[in-house]
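To whoever is covering the structure queue this week,

Two jobs came back overnight. Logging them here so there's a record in the thread.

Job A:
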Amino acid sequence: MLQPIKGVHNLDENGNPAGGETTGIGIKINWQNGPLGRGEDRKEPNGAFVEGVIAAAIDRLQFYQSTQFACDENATAILKLQEALDACQARTVSREERGVEGTHEV
């Protein structure tokens, strides 16, 4: 049975992602609110990014793999989560190449 998750996702006045929160038993994620900017105007993050949450799940599954709970299913989950992380990284590289990373530009 999947753990119930509640997501509250906000938009700014222009319809852009603007933070929010995802919660569940033992989970409280405050999402990044607003773009980080570029160059000298770059800000420190104020919330979580999807990539960080995926990395946390990979870390936990890798821990399981070092215990008596190691199994093929955990290995598959790690592989698929790594693929998701790679896809997010490819998106970031594409946005950097277009000069829009750190902004709300598409």
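Job B:
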Amino acid sequence: MDSRVQRFFDSVKGKRVAFCGIGISNTPLIKMFLEKGALVTACDRRTRDELGAVAGELEALGAEIRFGPDYLTDLSTEILFRTPGMYFHLPELEEMRRRGVVVTSEMEIFFDLCPCKLYAVTGSDGKTTTTSIIAEMLKAEGKTVHLGGNIGRALLPLIEGIAPEDCAVVELSSFQLISMRRSPDVAVVTNVSPNHLDVHKDMDEYIDTKRGLLLHQNSFGRAVLNLDNEITRGFASETRGETLFFSRKEIPTWGAYAEDGFLRFVRDGKITDILPASEIRIPGLHNVENYLAAIAAVWGGVSLESIRRVAKNFSGVEHRAEFVREIDGVKYYNDSIATSPTRTVRGTLSLYTQKIIVIAGGYDKKIPFDSLGPVLVEKVKTLILMGKTAPKIEAAVLAAPNYTPGNPEFLLVESMEEAVSTAREKAKPGDIVSLSPACASFDKYKNFEVRGNHFKEIVWGIKES
């Protein structure tokens, strides 16, 4: 075992360690820290009944469990791990810091201890797919790859089995980055646009979290930035190591770009043809960008053969323009990952040449929908709206300069069942129906995966005529 890892776990033995959130990422951590001799408290705002069997399982292993809305009140601990989605400046966490509690996260500790080359991806859109593509390319090259972070898997429980020659590939959200003071070997920022403004104090704070991914790199690091995004392009002035760009609109001095239907790489004027964009298995211009970002990240460490093989064979990530089923000539797609207006514009609304039926709306993250309205008018024939943001999306469409009455048709619904039923009634053979909410799911669902799975379950329950 790496000596740094051994020292860390020696240091937590006998310490009071609390974990906020008993979920997918924290449960393996709780078990690990119990095994290492820490005095663990597992905290969650849900009730025991809502937590289910996992609460009893952790108690049997020696953890103390705190339930309910006051789960952080008067918490006696020396170290506290916040869950990935917990905001850093939560008042309860600020109070703990004032009391001298070490407030950290699984990913912060993993970055400190990781013994192998570390790739990390952040951005407002495209980060999960880009992270997955990088991991697939490294695996195609024969590397042992550890994939995790915001993509849904904690990596710290695996730290003792990670070898120096392996690769770790992680997706990082703004909530994770806000407190991190260490950067990866390869930092990728896909793009930055308004997001999570219901939680971050302002757009500047949100941008600063993304910038933080590359601020702590040394001269041997690599930063990969989107040349077509004004904010990410501006990050180049603050990089210390290699700075590569990717673009669909320009030819960078160093990086990956799309031109004349081809993906290419350039350095010092030397151009390498990679493959035609038409050979990428997952559709959409946004996925061309995701591939360009991934290519720039792995260039020099992955062969052209491996890059091409992944592009032609990788079928994408669940809940991202995922084909569900064709019923009576109508195709249904699940794009529940579209939790912001830009995700819907760059995803579902960029994929199809015909006008489609879209189910949208959800939790209000205080993001403006102005840019979404004109694209919905251009690309959608029937717009089915649900959730708290339905009036805002409708207003954005009505205010669009290209809007005419009935184009698109508006329909307001109360539930996913009603949304799918309404789409079924309106659709004709040859139509496309896509769930692409442009909003988070928290008004009705725990996360976008639960929302997407519910949509798929309903679609699979439809009986053909």
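Note for Job B: The domain at 322-460 is CATH 3.90.190.20 (Protein-Tyrosine Phosphatase; Chain A).

Please reply-all if you pick these up so we don't duplicate work.
Q.
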